[in-house]
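Recap for those who missed Tuesday's class. We walked through two folding examples back to back. For each one, the amino acid string is listed first and its predicted C-alpha cells come directly after. Nothing is annotated here on purpose, so try labeling regions yourself before you check the end of the notes.
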Amino acid sequence: MIAYLGVLTLLASLQLPWDNLGWREISPGTGGRVTAVAGTPQDSFLYYTGTAGGGVWKSTSGGAAWTPVFDAEPVAAIGAVAIDPTNENVVWVGTGESNPRNDVSHGDGLYKSTDGGKSWVRVGLAQVWSIAHIAIDPQNPEHVVVAGFGNPFVDSTDRGVYVTFDGGKTFTKTLYVDARTGASDVALDPQDPSIVYAGMWQFRRWPWTFRSGGPSGGLYKSSDGGRTWTHLVGNGLPAGDTGRIGIAVAPSEPSRVYAVIEAKGGIVWRSDDSGAHWQMVSDDRDVDSRPFYFSRLTASPGNPNDVYAVSLSLEESRDGGKTFHVVGQSLHSDFHDVWIDSDDPRRIIVGDDGGTAISVDGGATWPNVVRLPIGQAYHAAASRTNPYFVCAGFQDNAVHCGPSNSLTDAGIIASEWPILIDGDGQWAVPDPYDQNLVWLDWQDGLLNIYNRATGASRSVRPYDAFPGNIFGAYHLDRARYRFNWDSPIAFAPWDGHIGWLGGNAVFQTTDRGLHWTAISPDLTRNIKSHELPPGGPLVLDLSGAENSDTILYIEGSSLRRGEIWVGTDDGYVQLTRDGGRHWRNVTPPGTPTYARIEAVTPSPFVAGTAYATADNHRAGDDAPYVYATHDYGKSWTKIITGLPSDEYVRTIRPDDRDPNILYAGTENGIWISFDRGGHWQSFRMNLPPVSVRDIRIQPQFDDLVIATHGRGIWVLDDAASVQELGEARRLGAMLFAPRTAYEYRYSDGSAAMNENAASSNPPRGAIIDFYQANPDVRNPVVEILDARGHSIRTLRGRDVPNKPGINRVIWNFRENNPTEWRRATKKFLASDPGAMVVPGRYNVRLRLGGKTFEQALTVRPDPRDHHALAYYEAGYAFAKRYDDVQGRIDEILNDLDAVNASLGADQTANHDPAIAGLIASAQRRRLVIFHSFTADYRYDAALLRQFGSLRESIPQTDDQLQEQSPPTQAQLRYAQKFDAAYDAAVGNYDEYVEQLLQLSRVLQQHGLEPIRGARTVQP
C-alpha cells in the first residue's frame, strides 16, 4: 500500500499545471494522406487506416465511424498496417511513412496490438525510421516479414528486410544491400509462405533534392520464409538502375507475380512461373505517374488477371497487367494502398491523399468516402471577427476557412470548412482591412485573393517565369525569381495595406496585388547546383515540391516600422530595418548550413529581440535549433534546454501578453517556456503526437491556434491562465481575471444531422479559471454576483474541478435554477434553467482554501444582435418572474409529496374509523390540488398523449433557450391567463393547507404524527 501511494505521489508531481486544460480540434473531415489500409475477411465491418501524420484509425462500423487508436504512442507517421489473418484482434503497425515526399515524417519502430488496438507494444525496429510493408504468414502468424525502408535523409545500416518467427519477440535482418538501399515492399505466397518476394530501393534525400534509383536496388526472392535471399536479375527483368518496386502475388494462382518497377523500358512486369521469368506487360505511365510516391500493386484474390495499381489515379487491369483503366474517378487523387477481401473480392478499401474509400461492388461504385480529420496543415491564420474564423492550407487538400465557433448545437462540421482553392494549400491569411478577402497560395507561390462573400478568386502572383507553366519555371536555375512549394504571405503590422510574398526575394504590394515591387535582393545562397531538376537518375520530379534557395518565412515587427525578418530554406536569417532599402544577413552562428529557417518571429515587447528556428532534419540531423537575439541579430543565444535532443523544431511564437513566454512547435508536439527560452516544458496535454507547423494567437479572445501536419487545426481557448501562471504559482492560489464573455445564440444544428464528423465548439458560457497548488480539502465554490453584490449563481461539486494546477469552470450565463420537484422523472426534473442574465458587469467570487477571491467579469450580447439594453432587461424580467413561479410550483409539489407521505403514515398507524375518514378526505383533496399544478409526466410520449397543467404551461419567451426575448403581446395575454389559473390554484392550495393544519392538530390529539409539508405559499 505504501509503494502504491508513493507511485500516486510521483504521478501527481509529474502533472503539469496546465494539464487540466486541453486543446480543441476545429477542422473536422478536411481529409489527409492515408498511407496504409487494412481489413479482414473475419469481420466485414472492421477496418484500420494508417496516416502520414495522424496516427492509426479504426472502424468497426464498415467505415461509417472512425476512432483514433494510436494517439498514446510517441509518433503519428504510419507506413504500414496489417491484421493477423487468423485473429482480428492482433494488429501490426509499422511507423514512419515510406512515401518519401518533402513532408515525410519519421517513425520509431514496429508495434503490435493483441486487443484490437486498445493497447500497443513496440516489438522492435526502433531505428529503422520508416516501414513500408508488413506481410503476415496466413498459415503461421508468428512468421512476419517486414520491409524496412529506412531514413531517406541519411545513409543507414538499419535499412532492409526483417523477419520474425516468434511473433515479434525477436527479429533478424536477413536482407541488406547497403546504407542507401531500403526495402520498398514485401509479398508472401499465401499458399506457400516460405516463398517471399522483396523490392529493394536505392533512395536518398538532401535538403534541396532527391534521387530515386540506382544500381543497388532490385527484386529479390526467398524460398525459406525470408531467411535467405536470391537477387532476381535478367530473364526479362529490366537491366540497369532500378528505383521503387511494388510487388503483388496473385492469391488464386501464386505462380503469377506482378512487379511495378521504376526503371527504363517499362512500368509493370509479370512472371507466370514464380519469378523465374518475366515479361514487361505495360509501359503505361499513368499506372505509376510519380514512382517515388506511389509504386504499389495489389492482386485480386479471386482472379489472377485482375490487378490494381496505385498512382495519381487508381488503376485496374483485368487482362494480366497489359492494359489499365481508371477506377473510382470521383475519388481523391494520389493513391497509396489497396486492400481486397480474400473471401469477397467485391469489398475493397483504398487509401489516398484525401482519406479512404470503400467499395462493396468491386470498385464500380464507392458509396463510403471517408475524409478523416487528418489534415496536414502547413500554416494557420485567425481573423479578427467575432466569432473568428481560421484559415489554413492542407497538403493536397486545398485551402479552407472555418469557424472557431459554429454557433450550432451540432458543433463544427466539415461543410463549414469550405474549399477556397484546390490543390496543395500552404498559406491563407485574412486581409487586415477586409476580412472577406483571404490571401492564399498553393504550391510554388501561386498567390490568389479570394472573396468569401462572392466566391470569386483572383490570381496576383508577382512573377511568372518563361519558359514555364502555372507551377513555375521549367529551368529554376535560370529563372530570375524562384518560389518555394511553401511560399510565405505576410502583412506589415504598421500598415495592413502592405502585403508581402516570399520568392527568393521579398515582393511587396500596396494595392492588393495589382502592382508588385521586389524590396530585397536575392536573400538566399543561390547555389545553382541546388536549383536543378530533382529526381533521377530514372524519373525527374518537376512538380515544384523540391524548389530550393527560396524564402520560407516573413514577419514584420509590431514595434518598429520597416523592420522585417526573413528565413530561407537554405539556412539564412535576413533582416531589414528600413522597409527593404538595406538588408543584413544575421544568421545565428552555428546554424546548420542548409537548415530550413521556418520561423523568425520578433518580440512584440522588446525592440531588437527576435526568435528563430532552424530545421535540419532533411540533412539527417533531428536536433532542435532555437535561437534568441536581443540586439537585432548581432548576437544569438541557443535556447533548447528541456527540448528533446532528437526532435526538430518547426516554429516558434512569443506570447503577446507576457514577454517571458514562448511557444515552440516540434515534429511531435508543442512546448512552452516561461523564461524566454531558458527552459522548455511539454505543452501537449491532449494533443496527439503530431507535427506542429504554425502557432498563432487570436488577440481578441487570447486563443492559441496551431496548425498540425496530420490532425488539422487545434485551439487552446483563453490562454490567460497560462500567461499568468507565474504569478499564480508565487501566490499559491489565484482566480484569474475572466475574458469578456458573449451570450451567443446557438441554432440546433439539425441540418447537420447526417454529417458524421464534427469538432467541438468552445465552451458555451464564461470561462472562469483558477489555480491552486494542491486540491482544496473543502472543495472550491464559485459564485456569480450581480452589480449590487447579490449572489445569483453558485457552482460547486461536479461543476467545479478540484485538481492541482489550473482548473476551469464554465458559467452558462444562467442564474440559479428554480427549486426542483424532487419526485419528477429525470426528463422532467426541471422544465427551465435559471434566467439568463442581462449583458453587463458581474463579479466572480471564489471560495478556496479558506480564502475568498474576486474578479470582475463583463458579459456582452451576441455581436450579431443590435438591441438596446432595455430589450435584454425586459426579456430577463419576464424570464425571472416565471422562474420564480416555477420554483414556487415545485416547492408546492415537494410539500404535497411530503403531505402525501405523512397522511399515508398516519392512516397506517390510525385505528379510529372517524379519523380514517378525515385522512382519506384530505388525501382526495390533495390529489385534486396536486393535479391543478402538474400533469406529472412520467415518460416522453406523455407530451403527446396527456394534457398538461400549470407546471407544463409555464410562460416563456426563449427560442429553444437560445434567446431570452421580451414577451410579445400574445405571450403577455397567455401569461395573464396563466397568472389567473396560477393564482386560483395557489388560493385553493393555501385554503387546503389551512384545512391540513386543523387536521394536523386533531391527529396529534389522537397520538398521531403531525402533517409534514403543510405550508402556505410564500410570495
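Example two. Treat it independently of the first, because the proteins are unrelated.
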Amino acid sequence: MTEFAHEFIPARAAHSLVDRDRELDIIHKAIFGAGEETRVLLITGSGGMGKTFLLRKVLEMCRERGRWHEAGRLIVPPTPGEDLVDFFHIRTHTVAGFTREVWQVLGAKKAGMQTFADALKRFEAERFHLGEVHRELSKAQDRLGESLLEDLNRLTKKSRLVLALDTAEKLLYEAGRIERELRLPPEETSTLSRLKETFFPRVRNATILLAGRPESDVLRLKSELEKELGDRFTHVDFGNFDEDSAIAYFDAVADAVYRDGDVATAEAIRSISEDTRRVAFFYTNGRPILLSLLIDYITTQGRLMDEIKDSLEEAKARVEKQGWDNVQSRIEKGLLTGILERVAPEAGVIQSLAWARKGLTAEMLAELHEMSREEVQELLKRLRVLSFIKQIGDTYFLHDALYEMFEKHVLQRVPRERREKEYTTITNWYARAIDEARKALGDALMKPLEVRGAAVGQAHARLARLLVDEMHYRWRLSPVWGFQAWEADHQEMYWANDSATQIELDDDVRAMLRETPEEDQLNGLARLEVELTLLLHRLKRMLLHAQYDEVSRICEQVRARCDGLSKPSCQLVGARMDVLRGEALARKGAGLAEAESALKGAIDSLQKLDVSPSEFDTWRRDITLAEACNNLGYLYRTMGRYEDAVDTYGQALAMWRRLEDEEPEQTRKFGLRAQHANTLNNRAWALAWTGRFEQALRACQDALEMRRTLGPEGPVAFSLNTFGLIQTKADQPHRAERACRAALNIFIRLEQPRGIGLALTALSEVSRRKAELEAVYSAEEQRKLLEEAIEHAEKAVAIFSEEVKESAQHAQALIELGCAHRDLVRILSGDERNTHRNLGEDALRKAMEVAKVDPNLRHLGIDAEVNLAWLYHYAGDDKAAEQAAKSARESACGALNLGEKEIPTKDRRLDQSFLLVQLGKIELLLGEIALQRNDLVAAGEHFAASLAYDERYAPDFRDMRRGLDKMYTLLKGLNADEFKEILKGVNQATENYKNLSSPTRMHAFLEESFGLGDAGKA
C-alpha cells in the first residue's frame, strides 16, 4: 500500500450507509409502493451530510445485483459514477442541457429513446439558426423537453424509472441586495421552470430523487412542489447524525478500512473509546464529513486533538467558557493542519484544490505541479475515492465544507504575494485555455453551414464554462479586474443568446459579494456599482421575456441610486438604465415620448462622458451608445419619423463598424458584426419609407450578405423579409414575393411567431399589390389574390393580438387586412361587396383603436382612417368617404403643425414626414370624388395639392407614381373645355394653398401627359 493510502485510508473508505434507515425506507416506498404514480422526493441536507452518497447507493441497490433489484421492473442509469444528473454543471441549467443529460445517464441510444435523439439533432441546428431570436430559443427547448417526455413515458409503460438529480440549490439564484429591496424573486434556471411546470407533473411511473442544500430558495421550491404535486411529493430532511449513529459511524469506517486491507488502521479506529466518540460527535454536531476528517486525523496523526481529549462534561464546559465558534475554529484548524502537513504528492494536489473553488482538471494540475499528465492522472485515480474529494466530469473539487474551512482559516491569512502567485498561475492557465477555445469557436463558425450548428454549440459551451471560471479567479485576484472580465463576458454571452451563462456569471458575483457583506469598497471597486450592474443585467434578460412594464418601473424607481457613484460611473450606469427604460417603452409601443426622452438623454450623457484613459470604460460606453442609437432608431421608425430613424441608425452603424474593427477577439467580432447587420437591416427599412429605394435595397442586400456569412437563419429571414418589403414599396411585388415567402418558410421551420407575423403581413401586401396590376391579372385572378391577402393578414392579426403583443405590428396587420377587404370591395358587387365593406371597416376601426394606446402611434391611426375613406368611396358612399378623409386631414395637419391648406417648405424639418403622403392620398380621393360630381375646378385643385404633398415628401416616391397613374386614368377622357376647368382648379390651388407656387408638379404632368403646352400659365 502506498504512503498516500496509509495517510488517507479512513477518508478513502467506501463505507455503508449509517443511520439512514428512515430515508431508505421512504425512498423504497416511493419506488415500490406507489404503483404507477410518479413520486418526487426532495432530499435536503447541509454540506457534508452525504446526500450524493445516498443517491448513488440507492441507484446501486436498484441496479443488477443490488438488493433492491427486480429484473425488468426498474429503469436505472446503468453506469456507476455517471448516474446522476448534477445541476452543478452550467450545461444542465437549460432545458436542452438537462434533457441531454437525462438521455446520457440513461444510456443514450441504449435506452431506446430515438424520438429524443432525432429531436436533439434537430435542436442543435435549430439553436444555431435562431441566432439573435431570444424568445423562440426557449420555445425550441420546450419542444425538446416534450420529445424527452414522450420517450420516457413510452419506456415507463412497463418499467419504473428511478432518476437522481443532485445539487438542486444551483437551480435557483439568490437575489442580490437591491433585487431583494425591489421584491424581485430569485431567478430560476429554465430547467427548474420546466421541472415544476411540465416534467414532474407529466412524467409517468417514475421516482425522482432531487437532492440539495437547505438554502432558503430550495425551501421555497419545496413549498411550490407541495402545492403543485400534493401527495405525490415528499420532503426528506437529511439531518446530522444523532449521537448513537455517530458512534456507529466509527465502526462503519473501520469495517470499510478492514475490507480495504489495512487491518492495523481498522483496529486503531475500533479502539477509539465510546467517550471519545461522544466528544467527537459533540464537537462536529454529527456532520459526516467532519467526523470522517476527525477519524482520519486521529489515525494518521496517532494522537487526539487537545479538545478531543476532553470528557463530554469538559467539552461542554469549554464551549460555554470559550464560545462555540472559537472552539470549532480550533478544531477545524487542526483538521486542516493534518492535511497541509502531509508530504505525499496527493496531499499537494489537495492543497492546490483548496485555492480552486471551480475545480481543477488533470491538465491544470499537471501545469501547476510541473508533472506529466499521466503522473497527475495516476494521482487523481487514487484521490477519486476520498470522501472529501468530488469528481464532476473531468474536474476535481474538494467538499464544500473543506472549501469553507480553507477560506476561513488558511487562504484569507496567507500573504498577499502567495495569493497573487496562486491565482495568477490559475488565471494564466485559463487565459491560454480561453485563447484555444476562441480559436476552436472561430474555426467552427467558419465551417460549412450544414455542419456549423453542432460544432458551434460544442465550441461555445467550452468557451462559456472557461469564461465563468476565469472571471471567478480574476475577481479573487483583483475585484476591479474581475469586474471588467464579468462585464465583457456577460456582453459576449448576451450576443450569443446564452442566458444560462449570463445568469451563472451574475450568481458568482453575488456569491463573492456575500463574502464581504459590510464592505462598500472592494479594493477600488464600488460595491454599489456592482449591485446596480447586477440589476442592469437582470433587466436585460427581463426585456427578452417581454416584461416591459416591470423593466420600465424598476428603471424609474432605481435611477436615483446612480447618484451614489462617482461621476463617470454615475453617468455610465445611469445612461444604461435610461437605455433599458427607453427600449422597454419602445418595444411595448406605449409611453413613446418618455422613451424618446430617456434614450436621447442617455445618448447626450454618453457623448459627453470622458472615460479616458480607460480602454475598458471606453468600450462599455461605446457599446451602450451604439445600443442606444439603434433603439432610438427603432423608436423613431415606430413613431413614423423615418428621416430621424435613418439618421440615428446611421450613428449606430458608424459605432458598430468601429467597434468591430477595433475588437481583437475573433469570436466577439462575430457578435459585433451581428449587431452591425441588425442595425443595417433596420436602416434599410427606414430608408424605404423615405422613398430612397435604391439606397434601401443596397443596405438591405449588405445586411443580408453579412447575415448569411454569419450563418443563423433567423436573422437571415428578417433580412429577406425586409428585402421583400422594400421591393413591395418600390412597386416590384413579384420580386418581393420570393423573398417574403423564403422568410416565411424559415420562420415557420424555426417556429418563430413574430417573424411569421411579419412575413404574413408582408405577403398580404404583396398579394394585394399584385392584384392592382389589372393588365396582368383577370378579375377572377385579382379576386383570388385579394382573398389570399386577407388570409395572410388575418393570421398576422391573430399572432400580434395573442402571441406577440406589439401594438405597432398589430395595427399594421389590421390596416393590411382592411386594405385587402377594401380592394375587394372595388371589384365586387351586391351582398359580397357589402360583406367586405363591413369586414374592412371593422379591421380599420380596430387599427385606429390600437393606435390610440400612444399618441406617437397616431400616424398608424391616420393611415387606417385614410384607407377607411377610400373603402367608403369604393363602396359608393362618398359622403362617408369625405367625412373620414377630412377627419384624417385634420389629424395629419395637427400632427405636422400645418394649416389645412399648407404645403411645408423644403427647409422645414417634419417629425412625421410620411404623413405628407397621407395628405396626398386624401387630396387624391377628394379630387376623384369631385371629378365624379363633375366639379372639375375642385378636382384640379385637389389633384394639384395631392402631387404637391407627395413631391414635398419625395419627388419619385411610389405614391407619387401611383397618384400620377390614377390621375391619368381619370383625366384621359376629358375634352379641351374640361381640361380648361381642371387647369383653372390647378391655378386656383396656387392661390389657396400656402407655399404652392406656379408652375406646380400638376402643371408639368398635364403638359407631359396631354400636351397642354400652356398648362403652367394662368
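Answers for example two:
Residues 471 and 486 are 6 Å apart (CA to CA).
Confidence is low (pLDDT under 50) at residues 1-6.
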